[in-house]
Amino acid sequence: QTGLTQPASVSGSPGQSITISCTGTSSDIGAYNYVSWYQQHPGKAPKLLIYDVSNRPSGVSNRFSGSKSGNAASLTISGLQAEDEADYYCTSYTYSSTLVVFGGGTKLTVL
Amino acid sequence: QVQLQESGPGLVKPSETVSLTCAVSGYSISSDYYWGWIRQPPGEGLEWIASIYHSGTSYYNPSLKSRVTISVDTSKNQFFLKLTSVTAADTAMYYCARGTAHRYSDYWGQGTQVIVSS
User: Fold this and answer.
1) Span B26-50, pLDDT tens digits
2) Residues in chain A whose beta carbon is closer than 8 A to a beta carbon of chain B?
3) For the stretch A6-15, what's the b/e string if a residue is b when 16 or more beta carbons lie within 10 angstroms of its beta carbon?
């Protein structure tokens, strides 16, 4: 199921900053501070980047940051590097029986 | 270091049942956390399937609930997924993961591919 809306693709040059948006509803992102973000390189498992809107797990670069406003969340990557080229997924806890909703994913291209 | 490793049959025929295992090392699943399954069809996004709490309470994606069973064997430190009446739409990479409630998953396995084909 794809409950959250993300742009299909974004791009940026090395050193630049980019932001990936994730739009939900008042039943998920708007209701809880339980937004998380994952990075997935081709052929690899997703890796947790951000949890509970803006928290970084140990070992994740501080170039990655998250925020939320209303029913939307954002992931910002600063100082883009070639290895940041990957797919990025947002998720949120939801009030509905689905419990967990994912975004459709955003492909980041580093030019 | 927490590690998860999925295993499964790989190729399954339509209408059959697929059983997947997730072996956990570096942490006792009976201690805490939710343990779940997420899948990803080829070229598509992620879909949460089911989770089970260390106490045995289970949670299911309503769209799959009628065909899915999640279970745990704490003595083997493993948890399992059974998906019945599979179709081509169930072809996907299946990941197991450790979760904090249904807020996020911090450790993931490398995935096991399930292909449904006659």
Assistant:
1) 999 999 899 999 999 999 999 999 9
2) 1-2, 34, 36, 38, 44-48, 51-52, 57, 89, 91, 93, 97-100, 102-105
3) bbeebebeee
